[in-house]
Design goal:
The protein is built from 23 helices and 15 strands. The protein is of the alpha/beta class. It has two domains: 348 residues, Aspartate Aminotransferase, domain 2, CATH 3.40.640; 160 residues, no CATH class. It binds pyridoxal-5'-phosphate. Pyridoxal-5'-phosphate binds next to α7.
């Protein structure tokens, strides 16, 4: 069978890599490459349900195991449900109704979006990893509640371990025997993790001000409120640490007295209105985020009562935060004595997969800290967090740029490598196991670099730091409900993430094999898109508007001869209408699934935007910034390349080629119809 062009291209890449590394190494690598692929064969249920036997075996085995566990708790207790219960008409009536409803549910779910298929190139979701799915199903009947160890003696520890696993992936300190060890926990998703970042940053920023207001003696407190509010994370944690030690050295009556005085001055006690009324020289701090930031930031500021006015969106260039724009915003803040709570970097934007220059943001934080404007850096890596595995060795060290590059054609750009290398110096990170972690929904994660700050989120203020030890660390976080925004939450989700990270450790040789496939697919997709643009030149202009930073690739299109943005948008929307879920029609009528997004000059930069419009023969004057008909932006197709089977080497099929052939037919058909 003749190989499809993308399959050939993918093979050529791996052959070129082999040639570059010498002949004998080449055969080693070919063998490695093959065994890597075989390993991936076992990871998912598969597009065809190929691994049904494996999953079924696991589910049945561990369901039985659970039943034995019930029976062996007190085997002397007789069965409470009689053995003949199933013969009673009421029982049978119940079972009949249950079956009927389950049949209907199962039938209705056939309309679900086929995330598992390599024909699905839409949003940030794909097949589920068997280790996570099996661990979650196995755990469900035990129903642990990770709110605390009383309700989850096993899975709470797993959740804390997941935090350490993720911390290691990002380069944070992850040895709980060290005082400054990181801490992470799961959330319902990235939205809540971002909210937790806001909460923690605000608590830590305001705490030194409370210490001053309470007039705690003996501590080396900042000289005024502005300085207290601008200590930055390291300074604030050092002060918190000093306060804790001081408190521990007092007798119990003194301790109670001072703890109550400080508590009474805390922002968490007074509320935002009360706190700032008491400190009129301080303004409510702002959050600086790139314009492509996820809308969870807006939600978070509203939820925390800071208000959306306090979210300052910064312009970008090529979908990446502009360091100059950040610098300008910080200079303005310093001049206006406007405190800054967080600078947000996005590692893998939701719409474009682009990576902000985390290194430049870290440099800006350190520079402004020395000028007295302190703020924290939070990285919203809900999407791109797991790409960090591509940059990690099994021993936890960072892989150098040229070594990572050997695996790809273009990835990673120098800036992208620098961004991942700088993660270790940020203050906190959001990452979604339920996105690029290929796990079921309900699994986001928040990780902070230095766990000591978490004391300020504890519901019952406990400033007790046990002398740093693994046992003390674990004991503390077994009361997870004290620290997290939620209360009750699924221990099964923690088990799923933990087991997955154990089966596929978070380095390039294990878990990293998965994102590697997705980046290779994105490179093949990008190349194929360029060939598509040439082949379609007679009827349409097409261009990849910016080089993908990771595994999302966009495609801009315009019918030949058209110069009007509004018409180009209508054309792309019509194409997308055929690429989206349509519950009114049988699923099988859909050839492919894609998604759309838009390009705006504020995110792309004016020059870059003009360049793209020109490449599409669109008149920049028709991009109307004043209209409310959507013609202030350019609608483009967006493809998330997460499915590991986009290039099916087994059968020599490239779903990327099939997609572009389909798209070519649809473009021509649309043009005929209109
Ligand atoms: C998906 C996403 C979020 C929100 O995460 P949820 O899990 O949907 O709550 C936040 N930020 C970014 C960058 C994302 O991609």
């Amino acid at each position: 069978m003749a190989l499809a062009p993308s399959v050939q291209a993918a093979l050529a890449t791996s052959q070129a890599c082999e040639a570059a590394s010498g002949a004998s190494a080449a055969s080693d690598e070919a063998r490695d490459d093959d065994s890597q692929r075989r390993l991936l064969d076992a990871c998912f249920l598969g597009p065809y349900g190929e691994n049904d036997g494996l999953l079924e075996k696991l589910v049945v085995e561990f369901l039985r195991d659970h039943v034995y566990w019930r029976r062996n708790f007190h085997p002397e207790d007789p069965p409470a449900i009689p053995t003949h219960a199933a013969q009673h008409p009421a029982y049978q009536g119940f079972e009949a109704r249950l079956r009927r409803e389950l049949h209907q549910l199962s039938a209705a779910l056939k309309k679900s979006v086929p995330f598992h298929s390599p024909r699905y190139l839409g949003h940030m979701v794909s097949d589920l990893l068997i280790p996570g799915l099996a661990a979650q199903m196995l755990t469900l009947p035990y129903n642990p509640n990770n709110v605390s160890e009383d309700a989850a003696p096993v899975t709470v520890d797993m959740e804390v371990q997941v935090g350490l696993q993720l911390a290691r992936m990002f380069g944070y300190p992850h040895d709980p025997a060290r005082a400054e060890c990181a801490f992470g926990h799961l959330t319902s998703g990235g939205t809540l993790a971002n909210y937790q970042a806001l909460r923690l940053a605000l608590a830590l920023k305001a705490f030194p001000v409370a210490l001053r207001a309470a007039g705690v003696p003996d501590l080396d407190l900042p000289t005024d409120d502005w300085n207290a509010f601008n200590l930055g994370r390291a300074g604030a944690i050092a002060l918190l640490d000093a306060w804790t030690r001081w408190l521990a050295a007092q007798d119990s009556a003194t301790r109670r007295h001072w703890r109550a005085r400080v508590e009474a001055e805390r922002l968490e006690q007074l509320g935002i209105a009360g706190f700032f009324a008491r400190h009129p020289q301080l303004r409510v701090p702002v959050v600086l985020a790139p314009i492509t930031a996820h809308y969870s930031w807006s939600k978070g500021l509203k939820l925390l009562g800071l208000g959306r006015d306090q979210l300052q969106l910064l312009p970008e260039d090529g979908m990446r935060l502009q360091p100059e724009a950040l610098e300008q915003a910080l200079a303005d803040c310093a001049r206006d004595r406007q405190p800054v709570l967080l600078a947000v970097a996005v590692l893998g934007t939701t719409e474009y997969g682009t990576i902000d220059p985390v290194d430049a943001i870290v440099a800006a934080r350190d520079r402004w800290q020395s000028r007295g404007l302190g703020f924290d850096i939070h990285v919203d890596a809900a999407w791109g967090g797991y790409l960090a595995t591509l940059f990690r060795n099994a021993d936890g060290s960072l892989r150098p740029l040229d070594e990572v590059r050997r695996d790809y054609r273009r990835f990673p750009q120098t800036e992208v490598h620098a961004a991942f290398a700088a993660l270790a110096q940020t203050d906190s990170i959001t990452v979604d196991p339920h996105k690029l972690g290929y796990l079921p929904y309900g699994a986001g994660a928040f990780v902070c670099r230095d766990h000591r700050a978490m004391a300020l989120l504890a519901e019952a203020a406990d400033y007790v730091f046990h002398t740093p030890s693994t046992e003390g660390y674990l004991a503390r976080y077994r009361h997870l409900g004290q620290f997290i925004p939620e209360g009750s939450k699924a221990g099964a989700a923690a088990a799923a993430v933990y087991v997955t990270h154990k089966v596929l450790p978070l380095d390039h040789a294990h878990f990293g094999l998965l994102p590697r496939q997705t980046v290779l697919a994105a490179e093949a997709f990008h190349a194929r898109a360029e060939a598509f643009a040439v082949a379609m030149a007679d009827v349409a202009r097409a261009t990849v508007p910016f080089a993908p930073d990771s595994n999302l690739v966009c495609l801009a299109l315009n019918p030949a001869g058209n110069t009007d943005v509004a018409r180009a948008n209508a054309f792309v929307r019509a194409l997308h209408d055929e690429l989206r879920c349509d519950p009114g029609q049988p699923l099988q009528l859909k050839q492919f699934f894609g998604s759309v997004t838009t390009l705006r000059p504020e995110a792309l930069g004016d020059a870059h935007m003009r360049h793209i419009l020109q490449a599409l023969d669109l008149d920049p004057a028709t991009l109307r910034t004043d209209g409310d008909d959507g013609s202030d932006r350019l609608v483009i197709l967006r493809h998330t390349l997460m499915n590991p089977y986009l290039i099916d080497r087994e059968n020599g099929i490239s779903y990327i080629d099939l997609y572009f052939e389909h798209l070519a037919r649809r473009v021509r058909a649309q043009l005929r119809e209109h």
